[in-house]
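Board notes (copied after class):
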Amino acid sequence: MSERPTTAWREGIAEEQREMAAGTLDPECACMAELFPERLLVATDSVLGAFEAELPLLQGAPDEHIFAAVQRVVLALNDVNDEHNGGAYETGEREQLCHYIDEALAERGIDVVALTARHGLGRYELTDRWREW
């Protein structure tokens, strides 16, 4: 299974904490814990977990079912973003989340390129219809 972006975000927080403990990072320069509060990480993991639970049902499913699953995960991430005043996910995080969704589908045998092409979209436009973050 592809790695959730939250795993990397947690690793970044832990790395900063190790660096501060070692005295190699000025606490004023540490930003990961502020960018990724536990509440955001838990909410994002909850959304991604629900998406992951749907993935086995999508193998061989009609396009409409796949797009519906993508819509659900994107709308749920929109809600998380809204709960954090629209600033939960910056550009890098947005890219990581979109990549994760794409990769998770591909790992289940879904040809994302063909799926999006059948609907007049480029591969990286899979989430655009619903994404507000």
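Comment from the instructor: The mean pLDDT is 96. Residues 37-125 form one domain.
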